[in-house]
């Protein structure tokens, strides 16, 4: 018995490996924000250490219920004060390693949720 549809009406992560992810079969080697309704925005940071409060202020401007933050090869958390713009707009954020973030994004987007994934590759 199959539990997953053969086709999704939303953009999905179709693969990943060290230093890359594939979004709808297009291989990307840079950090990116992807959204439930087809948004794909280059995220100007290559490493966790490059992040700043401005990156999370950018995420707060998205029309999202929840943002999944893929922090790279391992789960790493940013300072809580960086999340204030998201909290002010009542946008939830979950942090996990990038591969887990890809899987979680696919599940939530497939359920029709207003989800974005901010992924460090």
UniProtKB/TrEMBL annotation:
Pfam families to which the protein is assigned, alphabetical: DUF498
Annotated CDD domains: Xcc1710_like
Top-level taxon of origin: Bacteria
SUPFAM superfamilies reported for this sequence: MTH938-like (SSF64076)
Record InterPro entries: MTH938-like_sf, NDUFAF3/AAMDC
Descriptive protein name: Xcc1710-like domain-containing protein
Taxonomic source organism: Comamonas flocculans
């Amino acid at each position: 018995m199959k539990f997953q549809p053969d086709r999704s009406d939303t953009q999905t992560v179709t693969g990943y490996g060290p230093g890359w992810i594939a979004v709808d079969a297009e291989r990307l080697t840079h950090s990116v924000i992807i959204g439930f309704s087809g948004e794909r925005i280059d995220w100007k940071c290559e490493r966790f250490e490059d992040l700043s409060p401005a990156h999370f202020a950018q995420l707060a401007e998205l029309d999202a219920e929840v943002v999944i933050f893929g922090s790279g090869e391992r789960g790493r958390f940013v300072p809580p004060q960086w999340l204030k713009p998201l909290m002010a707009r009542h946008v939830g954020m979950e942090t996990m390693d990038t591969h887990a973030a890809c899987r979680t994004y696919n599940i939530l987007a497939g359920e029709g949720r207003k989800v974005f994934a901010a992924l460090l590759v």
